[in-house]
Amino acid sequence: MFCPLCKSEYRAGFTECSDCHSKLVATEAEANGQQVGTFWKGYDKTRFECLLTALQHANIPHRFAEHVKYRPQSHSDYEYGIRILLSDVEHGEEILRKLEEADKAEDLDVD
């Protein structure tokens, strides 16, 4: 059994990846046949956390990473990234659009 998102291998009997919450497939070839892409990358931790929550609520399997980016003569920043299966991109983009619309509506309420 293999996770199509993180490509981890599991013993027979497991049905879901413990990290990605993706449904496992029977063979490594099946897992490798499913393409994964970067869904979102940025420096905004609040946006990152909102997206993770939204993806989880929508049952979209995802992987995330936080990397420290050092900038000369400046402070260090964290860069956040989220990867999903390409088959989930359309649904993920719909979630991203809804979050952006909610942000715009909130900005209008403040003004």
Explain the overall architecture.
By secondary structure, the protein is an alpha+beta fold. Helix content is about 35%, strand content about 20%. The chain is built from three helices and three strands; from the N terminus they run αβαββα. A three-stranded antiparallel beta sheet has the order 1-3-2, covered by helices on one side. The longest helix has 22 residues, at about 90-110. The radius of gyration is 17 Å and the shape is globular.
Helix content: 25-40%
What are the low-pLDDT stretches, counting only 5+ consecutive residues below 50? none
Strand order of the largest sheet: 1-3-2
Radius of gyration: 17 Å
CATH class of the largest domain: Alpha Beta
Task: Classify the beta-strand content into a percent band.
Answer: 15-25%
Attribute tags:
single chain, 111 residues, alpha+beta, Alpha-Beta Plaits, 3-stranded antiparallel β-sheet, 3 helices, 21% strand
Question: What's the layout of helices and strands?
Answer:
Elements: H1 28-33, E1 36-42, H2 45-57, E2 63-69, E3 77-85, H3 89-110
Antiparallel strand pairs: 1-3, 2-3
Helix pairs in contact: 2-3
